[in-house]
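#help-structures
NK: newbie question, is this the right format to request a structure? protein is ANTAR domain-containing protein
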Amino acid sequence: MTKTRDDLTISEALRDPLIAMVLRADGVKLEDFKQLLETAARKREPRSTSVGNMIGALASRANLPAVPCFG
């Protein structure tokens, strides 16, 4: 089975002729649109956190001791 994606990459969106027409019609500069997309992408990137930090954070929220359950 082949995995497909429905969303455009930032590069694809910046080259898309329909998006370019809408940007022109709305008076939006391509560079401004690019910065908007890149900022949104950075905010969506998953934050890397260790499992131990996650367990500790969840335990503190639940007011429980952070005791590992494995070995």
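mod (FA): yep, format's fine, and the tokens are attached above. The helical segments are 10-15, 17-26, 30-44, 51-61.
NK: thank you!
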